[in-house]
Each structure stands twice: as C-alpha cells, then as structure tokens.
Specification:
- Helix 2 runs parallel beside helix 12, helix 6 packs parallel to helix 7 and helix 11 packs antiparallel against helix 12.
- The relative contact order is 0.17.
- Strand 4, helix 7 and strand 5 form a beta-alpha-beta unit.
- With 277 residues, this protein is α/β, with parallel strands linked by helices.
- The protein has 12 helices and 9 strands.
C-alpha cells in the first residue's frame, strides 16, 4: 500500500491531526529546498507538499506566483525536483506529494511522469487544473505507479459530485477553504464546515483543509473540523522574507513547530524526526 495512505490511516486511527506544509521547489534554489524539506520533516510535518514551479499557476495567489517565478529563474525543472525528492527519500520516510499543473505531466507523458515520480519517492500528486471528470488517464497511470492522485473539494462542489469524488478518493482529499486562489486570509467561509461534515458521510479518507490557513490559531480552528491542515503561502512568505540559508531554516522550523503544537493542543508534542544520514 502507498506510504501516504498507511501513515494517514495510522494518524487518523490514533486521533492525531496531520500537518501538511507546502514549499515551492527551487525557491530560492533546489539545494535550499532540500534543506527546508529536512527541517520540516524534523519539526512536525507529517506530509510535505512540494510544488513544481510553472509559468502560469492559475490556482496560486501572489506569494506562490512570486515563488514560482524565483524558482524558474533559478533554473528549476522537473528533473531537478525528482532528484531532490530522491535525495530526501534516502533519509526520511515523510510522504511527499507534488503539486503540479497538468501541462507539465502531459508534456512529459502521463505514464512516464508517474513512473519517474514514483522512482524518485513521490507518494501523491495534487493537480489543481485537472477536473475529476477528466482524470481517468492520470488515475490509471498513477495507480500503476503506486501513486495517489489527490481529489479536490470546495464549498461550491455540488452534493452529487461531492459524493462521487469522496467515494473515489485515496490518501487525503484536498478541501479548499475558499473559491479563489491561494493566499493568507483572516477567516474561513463557514460553508467549509458543512462541506467537511457532508464529505465525512461518504469517506473515511483524511480530509485536509487548505488555502488561507496562515496562523497557529487558524490551524487549530481548522483541525476542530478537519483531519489535516495544509499551510502554504504563510510558510513560503516567511522563508522569502528571510535572508540567508540558516536563517530561512530556523524560521521555517520554528513556524512548523508552532503549527504542530497548535494542532496538538499547545502541548509542544511535535515529533522531531531524526535523519538517518
């Protein structure tokens, strides 16, 4: 079974909330990205979502658009991202999911992309511009490679479509908190909590809230209703606003610890994983 599903099921059975931080691969470069991934894994990240930079990231807000631009300017490409994940995988078993726009997958070849991603140690794919109804080819290729194609829900998903998506889901479902792009926000749409409640009627897969969660308090609130929280723009912004690699690592580690502590009730029980190499 896919390690993402295994670990998430263990967390849910144990009643633990899952933290999924997001990084843009290659921002500011891939060497620093690898160090940041390690810092996240050691300071409370249960899953790492790693974005392959793309020139037209339609689901991304300003912070992640700028991050993608910096990464592309640094020469980041899919081969480099796969290599970074492979090196990370030698030391950590933290599941890694790639946020990748479908054009990148299509241009490489769907089967080839999934095969190479799996070989690198990728556990799942988050493809924000591929509708559920058009995902069959990717679903088949991903399944053959033992990778999970993550499903999406939003407050505007119809009840009938929500049911179909939930029943087809594995790993976790990416539950979008707002209609729009990524970015930090002051509050979540109350309709999100109705969406989570309805989804829970059709699946026992981990429900992860993303888009707009930016503080430990918001993460704790989201975890009252969801099984997992995804934090992206707030982390990427903190890293971008900090100069120097060591300083970036320190800031990222501290922010992840604060989020994990919030998910665990402020008890400071985040597990700090030790590298094997």
């Amino acid at each position: 079974m896919n390690n993402l599903s295994v670990q998430l099921k263990e967390q849910k059975t144990a009643g633990k909330k899952v933290l999924i931080p997001f990084l843009t691969a290659g921002d500011p470069d891939l060497a620093v990205t690898e160090q940041l991934m390690a810092a996240l894994a050691k300071n409370g990240a249960d899953v790492i979502e790693l974005g392959i930079p793309y020139s037209d990231p339609l689901a991304d807000g300003p912070v992640l658009q700028l991050a993608a631009g910096r990464a592309l300017a640094a020469g980041t490409n899919t081969d480099g991202v796969f290599a970074a994940v492979a090196r990370f995988r030698k030391c950590y078993d933290t599941p890694v999911v790639l946020l990748v726009y479908y054009n990148i997958i299509y241009n490489r070849g769907v089967e080839r992309f999934c095969s190479e991603a799996a070989k690198a140690g990728v556990n799942g794919l988050v493809v924000p511009d591929l509708p559920f109804e058009e995902a069959q080819e990717l679903d088949i290729a991903a399944k053959n490679a033992n990778i999970i194609n993550i499903r999406f829900l939003s407050p505007t998903t119809s009840p009938q479509r929500l049911e179909r998506i939930c029943k087809a889901a594995e790993g976790f479902i990416y539950c979008v908190t707002v209609t729009g792009v990524t970015g930090e926000r002051a509050a979540m749409d109350p309709a999100v909590f109705d969406m989570l409640s309805t989804a829970g009627m059709y699946t026992d897969v981990t429900l992860a809230l993303g888009f707009g969660i930016s503080t430990p308090a918001q993460a704790a609130k989201a975890a009252e209703f969801a099984d997992a929280v995804i934090v992206g723009s707030a982390l990427v912004r903190r890293i971008a606003d900090t100069q120097g690699t060591e300083e970036k690592l320190t800031v990222a580690a501290a922010f992840i610890r604060s989020l994990k502590d919030a998910l665990e009730g402020g008890n400071g029980h985040a597990e700090h994983k030790t590298a094997c190499c």
